[in-house]
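[09:14] KT: can someone run the structure on this one? pasting the chain below
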Amino acid sequence: MTHILLGDDDKELTDLLQEYLTNHGIRCDCAYDGEQVLNKIKSQPYDLIVLDIMMPKIDGLNVLRQLPTLTQTPVIMLTAKGDEIDRIIGLELGADDYIAKPCNPRELLARINAVIKRTTMQQSDIVPLEHERLQLDQVHRICTVDGETLQVTGTEFDLLVALLQQQGNVASKEWLSQTVLQRELQPLDRSLDVHVSRLRKKLQPYHEDPIKAVRGKGYQLVL
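[09:31] RB: done, structure tokens below
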């Protein structure tokens, strides 16, 4: 059974989401401030974290900043509707996806299942991927460049897999959104661009322009 942590100080919403998710086969623990979120993460592993940005004691963005030292668990942010800045900052800090509040429980469940699906794969179906200086161990989800381990988020790893599968060809944004984020590309959705930008910065010590943006077409891995 999928086991997630839901961090939100809105107890009424949290109880509603917990009941809905539990009824759909997801075990859901709750935390009502940033300190509780961090303490629960330290005490046990989770398959996914749903994290509200506006929380007491430690806000969601500062929780995100601390997560890489504690866990590689994927994160879905809960953000205020229309608050694009928080969404972008959250994605830059390593969140895998976001959903605006007030959120539809059915949509949240769909996002949870999509993130879980792309971050947990059957080992028997996986083969290592290599390209020049880059190696991707899909069983353990480890990325190495020139033999050095590169710390990437789950979404960044999936983005590398998708780009590598194109064998140097340009991958369209529409295809990447469907393949990596498992949703259609929307005109105002910058999630994919933020993930690419963050991954590009991590790869730049190895190549000046590791992921090229091809105007009107998409992205190309050139590392």
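[09:33] KT: thanks! The chain has two domains: 2-119, 123-221.
[09:34] RB: yep, looked fine to me
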